[in-house]
Design brief:
Membrane topology: Peripheral membrane protein
Strand content: 5-15%
Low-confidence stretches: 1-13, 411-534
Shape: globular
Distance between the termini: 76 Å
Mean pLDDT: 76
Number of helices: 24
Largest sheet: 6 strands, antiparallel
Number of strands: 12
Pfam families: Adaptin_N, Alpha_adaptinC2
Family: Belongs to the adaptor complexes large subunit family.
GO biological process, one term: vesicle-mediated transport
Keywords: Cytoplasmic vesicle, Golgi apparatus, Membrane, Protein transport, Transport
Length: about 650
């Protein structure tokens, strides 16, 4: 009766009617859809009616209501969708686009086509309509088109790719909202076939972008380059351009990711050292991340820069040791550089003492000056590094030798239709500090390089990292002098009064932590009977932000008083679903961390994901932990990290 009462001359479908019709079962739907199609066809083909005409369109309000109802009825219904394909195509091709009234009907038509089980040709027609919207002078229509294409790109990527040039032109739009949507859509279109042209346009945008865009744009360029880079040299050149163009707006994860890529690209060490040196010679006051990456690279591969064979056509002028020392002095004495940047520079200069054939005395004099620096971190480094030129001179060459490559397990993906919604497997690696042990599992996946490097950030260690075996190692007496020198560099927790200090560990030349990947090893001892676990401790809140709450439930094992079992519970307190949830944790190297796979990666509203962590604390030191969470909400990726220092004393004593 409801549809039978609809006549195109005077009918109005209200919201209540839409709801009632959407609840109809399939037989009723198949009776309703043809009637709606007939009414809509009459509206399109009818002649002029002054009573219902709006800017030359017959009763646009009724057309919009019918289109919305067809979208509801055709959703997940192939038969109903097939019945309305023809009329949707007629509306899309016969509607006048010179007025906003026609654009409104076309927009509803596009939404209906994308929501039902429509044919591929019809979806291409809908995307082409949105492409025409991008050329409209009305900025509201352009914004709506970009917003709809951003939702459509994952349904029909190839159709959206045809409008790539128009989308890139929107990056130059004066409206900030349009530029932001165009930027998100541009990164969604990047794949192995267009990576070179897309990165060229996006880097030009990054150079001229407002500060509010630089951080997001630089991180997205780095992620896209990591997934689709055609070769190592192109990848390194792209990251270098990001560091130069984004300046101080580069996020910390970009610095860590760049350092790791340089380390593992063994065939490009000489080339990238030369390129970074040229960038470092210029004015770098507003490019602290660039200085940090450049000084790290030159400290590691300074001998290739000075004495290696020329690696580029314009490398006719050779760099001298005095040139490097002059630039390093400018960086160290500059009041504009941050303390972190000076830490990178001071450590790099110390390493260069083993790369130079001469000039060691000048380096020692500069380092000695920092022994009385007002900043305690720089003063500590100055005192410790100066000892490498005196009491521990015999240890300096071995201690400051080149770090081993930071290996990773990136998989080159050659599928042209890929977008940014996928992940890659990368082995855990050690950051520059070399003093945190990382454990993380996500349903068989290993964490990406930038995530782990971010957890292990910081230039605070001057020596090599140790390999952590499953059991503590007794310290040989032959290494006592070396450990005495490096004791102050350990970022592990201080030993509480009345407790024995942790047994020192030998310094190894390996740059990777030995994290056992065996699932049996991780499960052993974690799934025992309830009687084996006692001493339930108070629950603590580890993280609470943006509707995500993470709590820790702590228990002590009865048969192993040095082991604490933590059950991580993540609850979604927001109104929207959370997907691709990933939890990571890092502890000081005096601890041993094992993690089981999480119970899931999707948190519906009020949903719960749990994960079990097992921490062995043989020295009963105060427990500290750094956590990192990443997840997707409404298509946007969120990453955050936090320190957890509120563990109760009962968890380690």
């Amino acid at each position: 009766m409801l549809v039978g009462s609809l006549t195109w001359e005077s009918a109005v479908i209200d919201d209540e009617a839409l709801v009632l019709l959407s609840l109809c079962n399939k037989p009723k739907r198949m009776w309703i859809v043809p009637n709606l199609v007939r009414i809509l066809k009459n509206l399109i083909l009818a002649g002029y009616s002054p009573e219902h005409d709006v800017s030359g369109v017959s009763d646009p309000f009724l057309q919009v209501k019918i289109l919305r109802l067809l979208r509801i009825l055709g959703r997940n219904d192939p038969d109903a969708s097939e019945a309305m394909n023809d009329i949707l195509a007629q509306v899309a091709t016969n509607t006048e686009t010179s007025k906003n009234v026609g654009n409104t009907i076309l927009y509803e038509t596009v939404l209906s086509i994308m929501d039902i089980k429509s044919e591929s040709g019809l979806r291409v027609l809908a995307v082409n309509i949105l492409g025409r919207f991008l050329l409209n002078n009305d900025k509201n229509i352009r914004y709506v088109a970009l917003n709809t294409l951003l939702k459509t790109v994952y349904i029909d990527t190839s159709a959206v790719q045809r409008h790539r040039s128009t989308i890139l032109e929107c990056l130059k739009d004066p409206d900030v909202s349009i530029r932001r949507r165009a930027l998100e859509l541009s990164f969604a279109l990047v794949n192995t076939n267009n990576i070179r042209t897309m990165m060229k346009e996006l880097l030009v945008f990054l150079e001229k972008a407002d500060p509010e865009f630089k951080a997001q744009c630089s991180s997205s360029i780095v992620n896209s380059a990591e997934r689709f880079a055609p070769n190592k040299r192109w990848h390194l050149d792209t990251l270098l351009r990001v560091l130069v163009a984004a300046g101080n707006y580069v996020r910390d994860d970009v610095v860590s990711c760049t350092i790791q890529l340089i380390s593992e690209s063994t065939s490009q060490h000489g080339y990238i050292a030369e390129q970074l040196w040229r960038a470092l010679e210029k004015d770098t006051l507003d490019r602290q991340p660039l200085i940090q990456v450049a000084t790290w690279c030159i400290g590691e591969f300074g001998d290739l820069l000075l004495y290696g064979a020329p690696v580029s056509e314009d490398s006719s002028v050779r760099v001298t040791e005095d040139d490097i020392i002059v630039v390093y002095q400018r960086l160290l004495w500059s009041t504009q550089n941050t303390v972190v940047t000076k830490q990178y520079t001071l450590l790099s200069l110390t390493k260069l003492s083993t790369r130079f054939q001469s000039g060691t005395e000048k380096i020692r004099q500069i380092i000695d000056l920092f022994g009385s620096h007002l900043h305690i971190e720089l003063q500590q480094r100055g005192v410790e590094f100066s000892q490498l030129f005196r009491k521990y001179e015999h240890l300096r060459p071995a201690l400051l030798e080149r770090m081993p490559p930071m290996e990773s397990g990136r998989q080159t993906n050659g599928t042209s239709g890929l977008t940014n919604g996928e992940t890659e497997d990368v082995d855990p690696i050690m950051g520059e500090e070399g003093n945190l042990l990382v454990g993380e599992r996500k349903l068989g996946e290993t964490p990406d390089s930038s995530a782990l490097l971010d957890l292990l950030e910081g230039p605070d260690a001057g020596g090599k990292a140790d390999v952590r075996p499953p059991e503590p190692i007794k310290q040989p007496t032959t290494n006592m002098d070396l450990l005495d020198l490096l004791g102050g560099l350990d970022l592990g927790s201080p030993t509480p009064e009345g407790q024995n200090p942790p047994p020192p560990l030998p310094v190894q030349n390996n740059g990777l932590f030995n994290i056992n990947q065996s699932s049996n090893f991780l499960v052993d001892g974690l799934l025992g009977s309830p009687s084996e676990v006692t001493n339930t401790l108070p629950r603590i809140t580890a993280y609470e932000k943006n509707g995500l709450k993470i709590t820790f439930s702590l228990e002590r094992q009865q048969d192993n008083s040095s082991t604490t079992i933590i059950t991580m519970s993540a609850v979604n307190d927001s109104l929207g679903p959370i997907s691709e949830f990933l939890f990571q944790a890092a502890v000081p190297k005096t601890f041993q961390l094992q993690m089981l796979s999480p119970s899931g990666t999707i948190l519906s509203p009020a949903g719960l994901v749990t994960q079990v962590l097992k921490i062995t604390n043989p020295n009963k030191a105060p427990l500290r932990m750094r956590i990192r969470v990443s997840y997707s909400v409404d298509g946007l990726t969120v990453q955050d990290q936090a320190e957890v220092n509120n563990f109760p004393a009962e968890s380690w004593q």
